[in-house]
Specification:
Layout: E1 3-14, E2 26-36, E3 41-47, H1 52-63, H2 71-80, E4 93-94, E5 100-101, H3 113-134, H4 138-141, E6 149-157, H5 165-177, E7 182-186, H6 187-190, H7 205-222, E8 227-231, H8 238-248, E9 255-257, H9 265-273, E10 279-281, H10 287-295, E11 301-302, H11 312-324, E12 329-331, H12 337-348, E13 353-358, E14 370-371, E15 381-383, E16 393-394, H13 396-401
Parallel strand pairs: 6-7, 6-13, 7-8, 8-9, 9-10, 10-11, 12-13
Antiparallel strand pairs: 1-2, 2-3, 4-5, 6-15, 14-16
Helix pairs in contact: 1-3, 5-7, 7-8, 8-9, 10-11, 11-12
The protein binds magnesium ion.
């Protein structure tokens, strides 16, 4: 089998769940389709970030004519280069758009940023394609399932009316009532009415006190057994990350996420050494960055995202690395239905899996652009099916309705 084409389609629509309870924003979502000469195609998703579609277009030329089952080798060649002699079918010379591909130092031989974000969606589509070709679900190609349903945790950020206790209680109870058993709030939005300086990476005592009050309302509303996490979005200095973490310790949180800027694992390690709350990191990391943070004793829970780490097969590799270090993985999730289901296949096949994040339950189109015979979520879980590949089909009617200007349906 040979890859014949790689295309993308951008969807566009409202984003009712926003950080800090915002509801007015719009959001783009990008679907990838990989075609083969066997008449089978695979679907993937990439995030609508700068440079990603350009990188997918480069991959179209790089992958065309090559074996879709050789995905790991082609990605490795593209992201890390190889010494000579290069594989015979490896593209060399000037490619479409004028960019030159050179095996040992191609302009894409860098495992960060838009190239690896694009590779994440192409890997997803190639996994779907391989599963369809072999008539087996993707989780079987990822080592086989430990579980037939995958726990989902909801990102709630904060309610819009952050100073109203009833808003916090309602937001918390709504999550419980909809069947979920884990949720997350954003430290930087929970008491944004108490911020005195947006630049200095500090958390004044007044802001810390309101964060503790408001999360206390959530804990009261959901009871002692419900898992609650908080996210710092890589915003704070070490002493204030420690201070807020210590103040939150009585609430029995599952994790404190990305307390400090992620460029320095030692800062994160220092926070970790001074708090009892487990530290979770890594939503934008590739595997090597997780190794760095584990080596520096900077994290308890690894938190890769299928859209940013390199795809579902990299999720599995990172999960196994966490398992070798006796740490759990949770999967960060910024994607829609397709990315969520792809991550769920990897989660099913990962022994040490804790929870898969989802943002968009208030925005049905984002959870509906692909369909299955079962709903996206059942009782707070993604239920896996035995359909081949990722087990999804494009919802053509919904996609047509949400096509961004100038876009065409790709399936
Ligand atoms: Mg986060």
């Amino acid at each position: 089998m040979k890859i014949t084409d790689i295309r993308t389609m951008r969807l566009w629509g409202p984003r009712h769940h926003g950080v800090g309870g915002g509801t007015g924003a719009k959001i783009g979502k990008v679907i990838v389709r990989v075609d083969s000469d066997a008449g089978i195609y695979g679907l993937g998703e990439v995030d609508d970030f700068v440079g990603v579609r350009q990188a997918v277009a480069y991959m179209r030329d790089y992958f065309r004519g090559r074996d879709p089952f050789a995905a790991s080798a082609i990605f490795s060649e593209m992201l890390y280069g190889t010494p000579a002699p290069h594989p015979e079918n490896s593209p060399h010379g000037v490619m479409r758009g004028g960019m030159s591909a050179v095996g040992m130092c191609s302009p894409t031989a860098t495992p960060w940023g838009p190239v690896v974000w694009a590779a994440s969606g192409v890997d997803m589509a190639l996994l779907d394609l391989a599963g369809k070709a072999l008539q087996t679900p993707a989780y079987n190609l990822l080592g086989g399932a430990f579980r037939d349903r995958v726990r989902v945790y909801l990102d709630r950020s904060s309610p819009a009316e952050i100073s109203k206790p009833t808003a916090w209680r309602k937001m918390a109870r709504d999550v419980v009532d909809s069947g979920f058993t884990q949720m997350k709030f954003d430290i930087d939005f929970m008491a944004s009415d108490c911020v005195s300086d947006v630049w200095n990476r500090a958390l004044p005592l007044k802001q810390i006190n309101r964060i503790v009050d408001r999360l206390g309302l959530v804990r009261e509303a959901v009871g002692p057994d419900f898992e609650i996490c908080v996210d710092c979005h890589m915003q704070y200095n070490v002493p204030d990350a420690v201070r807020v973490s210590n103040a939150l310790e009585p609430l029995n949180l599952l994790w404190l996420e990305d307390p400090t800027p992620i460029t320095n694992p030692d800062s994160c390690a220092e926070v970790r050494s001074r708090t009892r709350i487990p530290i979770c990191v890594g939503e934008m990391f590739i595997a090597e960055q997780f190794r760095l943070f584990v080596d520096h004793r900077a994290c308890d829970i690894l938190h890769p995202d299928v859209l940013f780490c390199g795809g579902p097969r990299e999720l599995r590799r990172i999960a196994d690395y966490a398992e070798l270090n006796h740490r759990p993985v949770a999967f960060h999730g910024n994607g829609g239905a397709l990315a969520t289901i792809a991550a769920a296949h990897a989660a099913a096949a990962s022994r040490n899996f804790l929870g898969l994040e989802y943002h968009f339950i208030e925005t049905p189109w984002i959870g509906g652009y692909v369909q299955r015979d079962v709903p996206l979520f059942t009782d707070g879980h993604v239920v896996l099916t035995d359909e081949p590949g990722l087990g999804v089909r494009l919802n053509r009617e919904l996609c047509r309705k949400h096509l961004a200007p100038g876009e065409e349906l790709i399936a």
